[in-house]
Structures are given as structure tokens and as C-alpha cells.
Specification:
Layout (H helix, E strand, L loop, with lengths): L7 E8 L3 H12 L2 E5 L2 E6 L1 H14 L6 E6 L2 H5 L17
């Protein structure tokens, strides 16, 4: 019997100078979650996913000019999100 790893909601935001690096980061994050804004993704990550993703992102960015932020959310906080403006209809990730 395979046990399914618990996933937690994580919001990932990035500020990257290089267009090429920004594209690589965007493509990588699309594998883990959904875009919430131009440089913001909503993801459901296992502990293993989070560690792999942080390692890959650290290898991609220039630590002197770029930044990546991870915000771990509880399900209650995530459920109380509020959206308005251009991307207010963006579909959010769904808990399993």
C-alpha cells in the first residue's frame, strides 16, 4: 500500500534580473503549481518537493541580484485568500 505524502500550500514569489533565468524559473514552477501573478506561484508541495525545488532555484539564481521567497500557508489562511484586479479570476490550487 502506497502512502501519499502530505502536501502543504506554499506561495512562491521571485524577483530575477535575467530574462533567461526568469523563464527557466517560471517553467520549473509550472511543474509544481499554478501562476497566481507574473512572478508568483501557488503550489502544493511535499517536504521532498520543497527541498528539491529550493535546491534547483538556488542553482538558477544569482544570489547577488535575484531573490526567491517561499511563504508556507496553513489551509485556513489559504482558504481566506482575497483576489481582485486583473488576475482575480485566476484559478487557485485545490486541496486533495
Amino acid at each position: 500500500m502506497k502512502i501519499r505524502a502530505k502536501r502543504k500550500p506554499v506561495v512562491i514569489a521571485y524577483d530575477v534580473q535575467s530574462d533567461a533565468t526568469r523563464l527557466k524559473i517560471s517553467k520549473l514552477l509550472e511543474k509544481y503549481g499554478k501562476r497566481a501573478n507574473k512572478s508568483v506561484f501557488e503550489c502544493l508541495l511535499t517536504v521532498s518537493d520543497e527541498l528539491k525545488l529550493k535546491t534547483k532555484l538556488a542553482e538558477l539564481i544569482d544570489a547577488k541580484t535575484d531573490s526567491v521567497l517561499f511563504y508556507n500557508l496553513c489551509q485556513y489562511c489559504y482558504a481566506r485568500q482575497w483576489k481582485t484586479g486583473e488576475n482575480k479570476d485566476t484559478e487557485s490550487i485545490a486541496f486533495a
